[in-house]
Design brief:
Helix content: 25-40%
Order of helices and strands: HHHEEEEEHEEEHE
Structural class: alpha+beta
Number of helices: 5
Distance between the termini: 12 Å
Length: about 200
């Protein structure tokens, strides 16, 4: 899914942020600040978000900009996939979230699965590394890579968390209304291929 205005805004934002991180010249700094404001205006025009919210997102990020990481746990049981219902939009997703500083990808997904579903799990295989811009997610200010990690339940019991209101296993034929910012149907269907073929190679784009 290529959205040109989103690509342009993210690229302008990344270049301006990198320039602000390394530039010492006051005039260059002013130009980079203006570029960053242009990227924020593009975002506001196409997303309808409040300018202050967009500024807060951009201004809180400093240094050379790289894509952010989101991890999602993929747990199969009896040809069904574990999903959690997000309180934020009352829709379903795979347990997971943004990676926390100081934790590895594996440690992050273990933590997220426990917090959102109540299960203790161990990662067993990296299934996919997908560029969010290449999939039909709603547009967002920042560029994300999404890591989908297959896990096995080793303990715990189903229990909702601060961000979740329900937990359930779904067959491929009954995929629920999804939280599209987090996961989309085409991704879920592709992930089911790993349930049928454990030797399927890791996907990336």
């Amino acid at each position: 899914m290529s959205i040109k205005w989103l690509e342009w805004a993210q690229r302008i934002q990344a270049l301006s942020q990198s320039g602000l991180a390394f530039s010492k010249d006051i005039y260059d700094i002013e130009r980079y600040e203006e570029l960053r404001m242009i990227s924020a205006e593009i975002m506001q025009e196409h997303t309808g978000l409040e300018m202050q919210k967009i500024k807060d997102l951009f201004l809180n990020d400093t240094g050379y900009q790289t894509p952010k990481l989101d991890v999602r746990g993929v747990i199969f049981q009896d040809d069904k996939i574990l999903m959690v219902k997000e309180k934020l939009d009352d829709r379903w997703s795979l347990p997971g979230g943004f990676c926390d500083i100081g934790l590895s990808a594996a440690e992050n997904i273990i933590k997220e699965i426990k917090e959102e579903s109540g299960y203790d799990a161990v990662p067993t295989k990296l299934l996919a590394v997908w560029d969010k811009n290449k999939h039909p997610h709603p547009p967002e200010p920042f560029h994300y890579y999404k890591l989908f990690v297959q896990c096995e339940i080793i303990g715990g019991q189903p229990m909702t968390g601060i961000e979740t209101s329900d937990i359930k296993f779904f067959p491929e034929s009954e995929i629920p209304d999804l939280s599209a910012n987090r996961v989309v149907e085409s991704q879920i269907k592709t992930l089911f291929e790993f349930s049928r073929d454990p030797n399927k190679e890791t996907l990336f784009d």
